[in-house]
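Bug: token stream looks shifted between consecutive jobs. Job 1:
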Amino acid sequence: MTADFQRRLRRIGEQRSLRNHPLHRELVEGALSPAALRSWVTSEFALASSELRADAPETLEAWLDLAQAVGEDRAATLLGERTLPAVGEACGLLLESMQAATPLDAISGSLTDLFLAERLAESAASFEKHHGWVDPKARTALADLGQRADRRASAALDFVEAHATTDGLRGGCVAALEQRFEIHRSVFDAVSKANAHLRLSGAAQRRADPVDGRPMVVLPERAVRLNPSGDEILTLCDGSRSALDVASELQNRHPEVARLEEDVHAFLSEMEGLGVLERRVSSS
């Protein structure tokens, strides 16, 4: 591998690394709520489980240890019961891209590991500084994950060096790495969005339908009729709760409904798209 090509790959990582993402910066600064922290861990687990690495069993076990350390249920994490819908979609896209990729491109995409250990080290330092409630085992799990990332990155670089011998092959490697970073970023975007606080948009007014009394939201360009569940969800969107908080509250109210949180997130996303809800990122 030429020095210029290595520098090109590293420059992509420096520009697109999730160390620069607002979610990671909030984590480092201690600004994430416990619910958001748990959502970050379960999302990282979902990503790791989709990347089909050679050390997957040990890596996934370390993420499960971390999930337990931040108060998440291991079994629920393993089964994806806490995975945000948008995160699940991103992981599906990742699996599809890997199945369609050449082995060289798939390995090149895994070079995101070059920049993972440093991010996890910053996360561990944040746990120690800002999140005293987190089990100290979290730092052990993060250190283990970082060491594994370093080993995988070294092996991936060796593979790419041996086989990316033409400009065309190198171009494919670059595209694969850029795509992998974009998928990872979409996962972090989803967690950030779920951590934003929710409120009825300024243009929306809640009313009862004058004909049958059913709840509805009136916007300048449309009226959105609600069923009782939708009305209950919107009642909680008063600006003091995040999407994660709303989903958790509804699940607590209706424990008999399986995977209700997933449906709540989907509904909130739909209401945002219609202009019923607006989001502001929590400052706490």
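Job 2, same session, no restart:
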Amino acid sequence: MEGSVTNNPSRARVIKALSFEKLDRIPHHDDYWRQFVDRWRMEKRLGSLADIEDYYEVDIRISTPAEEGWPSQAAVVKEEGGFVIYRNGWGMLQRQLAHSFGEIRHGFFGQELQVVCQEKTDPEKLKFESPQDDRRFEWTSRCVRRNAGRFAIIGKVGGPYMRTGQLRGTEQWLMDLAEDPGYARALASKVTDHLIQIGLEQLRRDNLYATGLWIFDDIAGNQGMVMSPRTYEKIFYPCVAKMVKAWKAAGAAKVLMHSDGNIEAVLDLFVAAGIDAVNPVEPKAGMNLERLRKKYDKRLAFVGGMCNARVLPQGSREEIQNHVQSILELGQDGGVVLAAHSIGSDISVEHYDWAMAAYRKYR
């Protein structure tokens, strides 16, 4: 199990970085698409058991429980014409391309066909399956057993915006936020209480106290928030603050926040809620790591900064290496973990190797 920080170099490195302490090298975290991994193995002439995270010295592994309200109901309903009709653990019926269905766990990003709360269901009438159900944590426990001593393992829990939206559907949920914030707040609070218990149970079962938990909640696009910062503050900030308070009171060392897009408008709220770091800090969305690092000093750490939209796919060797070096220079006194949003099929192995060569040289 996770135990103390001292007997795991990656874990010690990550926690020191998030705590703005001196460290042996700046940590690295990346998530690799299956297509990239397959091409990497082919080009490097490596077997199917080759571990890309070991090869590129990744320090973090995310452990994901079955956090949904009704995970036992998740199932493929039917397959037709190259599509999968799937009901996820939040009760949402979706249509997704068959070839991409297995790439995204739980099928969160398919075409929405039907939701549980088609009408404004009283949140108190929603009875989720027990957060203590052993089946929720079968994968996370295996992940910890396999990787004890190797990675900084951080538990993953969804956030109140996206997970509550699964109950209402994306379009209706955004309308709720504008038209009936009282109902939206009550429904988000119900989901938040459930997610808190999932996080507490994962901390306990997998002994993740030395690292903590990571909230995943995409609340923005490249141009900014999907709602006004005021709406986020009124409805979701109390939920996030409640999550952080509960988990840290239980002993979690850190709580991180993931959201794609430009979330700068709510970073002060994250600091106030007790969030320790944000990810992925996407340059394509205007998230300038140098400026944010200076602005927040030691109040907020950053996991990200690498541009996977233009620099890694299209940049010259010199541009890629200078890009990585500039990020590493910002992390010399902690506060930075080198990462991109993800490493997808549009990034060549050669270009990524250039980035990792710079990482090994300047880290």
